[in-house]
Amino acid sequence: MSTGHILFFINPTAKDGAARKLWHKARKKYGFLPKDPIDITKVNVSQVISKENPEIIAIAGGDGTVNSVCNAVSRMQKKPILSILPLGLGNALSYCLGVENMDKAVDVLTHPDKKITIDLMKTNIPDHDRGVFNISVGFDARIVLNRKDYPYIGLGAYVLSGLRSLVSHPLQEITFTIDRAVTLIARASSLVIANCPVIGQNYVISPSAKLNDGLLDCTLFSTKYAYITNLRLHGFKHPLYSEHGKVRFKAAHIRIEGEPFVQIDGDPLQRQEGIEIEIMPKQITFLRNSDKHINQSHLPFIL
Prior knowledge:
By secondary structure, this protein is of the alpha+beta class. The chain has helices at about 15, 20-30, 45-50, 65-75, 90-95, 100-110, 140-145, 155-170, 225-230; strands spanning about 5-10, 40, 55-60, 80-85, 115-125, 130, 135-140, 170-180, 180-190, 190-195, 200, 205, 215-220, 230-235, 235, 245-250, 255, 260-265, 265-270, 275-285. It contains 9 helices and 20 strands. Strand 5 (about 115-125) and strand 6 form a beta hairpin. The radius of gyration is 19 Å and the shape is globular. The two termini are about 30 Å apart. The relative contact order is 0.17.
């Protein structure tokens, strides 16, 4: 395979620093992978893309790395096609595109005949103004923030930070305005805004969310309990799962006030000002698996 038209980025800090080791392991199996892909943590991504002018960008990393590249590409007039080589902990978008492991990702990269153009989410937060698959406020965002205290425990870090957040995060009165028309006030735990059905390692959060429907898929969780029992992971469903305690709605624009904890594609922050999020339809094109259902029980996009 010729790789002259492909630009390879890697985030060596992905998967708690194991990404570089995983890359070298993959190179032994797939000889066309370059020995030294560009370290995304050491360059200006936009400048590199403009200079190299690739047809395809292969992103080796996790959800945060995908966000960084999408952020840069979305601002370009001529946009290259993106492909993911999943080396992160969550790899949410990888599951949606059917490239949740390296074998599938390489197959898609070497046979780039199936593509999907997805929406992005735009915010009014400086330096965090693009979201790809998930933005949330409240309890869910607090879990992501607390996870920073357990950086080398892998998936277990989310379990520990979830338990810690159960104790530390209070219910907040959240005000949200839907499509600049309807304002509601709810004393609730979390508001999760999804662009695809899953977050993390195939954790189904919004079954009806689509990557290309031009809408934000919103789920309001009334309590932390309602959020935890929402767990559906690799076919497992929490024995107490139900739709009780959840309010689901779709919108093109939403404004949120009253909850300081925010996360955008796994990147946590705290913000006292109101947050505005709107959909940006049909922004980025990704390579995807040719399987019609992308090996998912919930189709992540409209074909």
